Structure formats: C-alpha cells, structure tokens
C-alpha cells in the first residue's frame, strides 16, 4: 500500500475505507456482478419487490488471501431491485464485518452466514417472498413433489420450516432443519430460501418453487392433487444428489 494521504487518528477505521481483501481486487466487481445479475433475474421473474428478499454469493477459496476468513457478497438493506447497481452489493466476512465502504448489508445476513457455515458446498443463496410459495408459508404447508422436474432440480418436495423471526440466529437453524437433504425450504410465515452451488441452479430453483406452488394451490382449488411417488423417480433424484445437492450425502 502506498503512503496514506492523511494521518491515522482514533476516529479513522479501516472498515470505512475501501480496500480489497481478495487476491485480485478486480474480482470484487465480478462477485458484485454475479449477485446483481441474480437480483435482475428474480425481479424480472416476479419473485421480489422493493425491500423484499436478498441474494448472496460466497467468495471462492482460491480468491481469498492466505489465512483470510471466509467472505460473501450480499444485497444491501432496503434494496430496490429496479434501481440496484453492481456497486450496491455489499462485501462482508463470516463475522459480518464490512469489507467495503458500500451500503449496509441485508438484515438477513445471519440467515445467509448460518447456511454458508453449515453447508460448505453452497455458493449462492436466494431468499424471496414470492407470492404463491408465501401462501404455503403462511398456511404452514409443505410443497409436495407434483411434477417430475421437481425431483431433478429440487430433489423432492419442499418442506415448510418452523417459525423464527427475520434476522434472528434461530432462522438459519430452522431453515436447515426444514431443508434436510435438499437445498431449499419454505420459511414459515415468511417466504422461500434456496441454497445452491451456483447462481444458475439457484435462480432455477427459486423460479420453480414459485411456479410449482402456483400449480399446487390451483390444483387444490380444483379439488384433487395427485402427489408423485419419489420411489418411481429414482433416476431423477439420483441426478440431483450426484450433481446439484449441497449436502454431503
Ligand atoms: Zn425475508
């Protein structure tokens, strides 16, 4: 680092000064762009509105400085998806320490960090308040496996968690319990959470859960729902566990 153009004093803190803790500082924009791109896709898909939900991405180990604590990039608090810019995406470490002079991170940071710490294979987390899945959330209902695509991309139906307050450290615990052996869950009286290895499948899962929730609620209105038998879909669930699952099974 070059000489600083000012004297350090007690009021100054590096947490308010923009510096890189990645091997290659140019990678910061790459991660911000990944999160921003997911924001645009879930907004376009009608899964989030102003101030709702959040998106994050883990920094890959190869991009971290040696002995550096793990880090993520996450959407800011009071996020407006219609106007968000790449440099609004916040860089924090696993202790929640701000690593950029950008905005404050989402208040759901503990939810994201709790999932990343428990599931090393997770690289992208999306949390939405998408309307049809949220109907199941307020009813405390699971989304059963009703169309084969669910077995391949979700691994099974999606369970609804027990209630825990937004922003609490209990929320990731309840989410992980409901996720079980798959990568997603419905958050009781709240919304949806998906935790995948990459952004592509995370977006796919978030959109699929909303679409399947809509179909399930519609079919219930018709008066009859035939739930698929997972034992007949073993080739699809095996593909999920072989390549998409973020559990160690
Ligand atoms: Zn939320």
Automatic annotation (TrEMBL):
Domain Class II aldolase/adducin N-terminal, chain residue ranges per copy: 33-217
Keywords attached to this entry: Lyase, Metal-binding
MF GO annotations: aldehyde-lyase activity; metal ion binding
Name of the protein this chain belongs to: Fuculose phosphate aldolase
SMART domains per the UniProt record, alphabetical: Aldolase_II
GO cellular component: cytosol
One Pfam family cited in the UniProt record for this chain: Aldolase_II
InterPro entries recorded: Aldolase_class_II_sugar_metab, Aldolase_II/adducin_N, Aldolase_II/adducin_N_sf
UniProt GO BP: pentose catabolic process
């Amino acid at each position: 680092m070059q000489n600083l153009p000012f004297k350090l004093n007690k009021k100054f803190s590096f947490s308010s000064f923009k510096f890189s803790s990645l091997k290659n500082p140019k990678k910061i924009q790459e991660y911000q762009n990944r999160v921003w791109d997911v924001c645009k896709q879930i907004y376009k898909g009608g899964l989030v509105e102003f101030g709702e939900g959040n998106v994050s991405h883990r920094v890959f180990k190869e991009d971290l400085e040696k002995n550096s604590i793990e880090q993520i990039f996450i959407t800011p608090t009071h996020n407006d998806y219609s106007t968000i810019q790449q440099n609004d995406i916040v860089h924090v470490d696993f202790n929640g320490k701000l690593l950029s002079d950008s905005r404050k991170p989402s208040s759901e940071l503990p939810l994201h960090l709790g999932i990343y710490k428990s599931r090393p294979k997770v690289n992208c987390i999306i949390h939405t308040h998408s309307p049809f899945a949220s109907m199941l959330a307020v009813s405390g209902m699971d989304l059963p496996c009703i169309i084969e695509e669910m077995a391949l991309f979700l691994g099974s139906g999606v369970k609804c968690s027990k209630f825990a307050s937004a922003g609490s450290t209990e929320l990731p615990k309840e989410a992980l319990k409901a996720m079980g052996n798959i990568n997603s869950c419905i958050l009781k009286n709240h919304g949806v959470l998906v935790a995948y290895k990459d952004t592509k499948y995370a977006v796919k899962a978030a959109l699929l859960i909303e679409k399947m929730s809509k179909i399930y609620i519609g079919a219930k209105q018709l008066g009859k729902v035939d739930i698929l038998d997972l034992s007949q879909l073993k080739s699809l669930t095996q593909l999920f566990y072989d390549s998409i699952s973020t559990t160690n099974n």
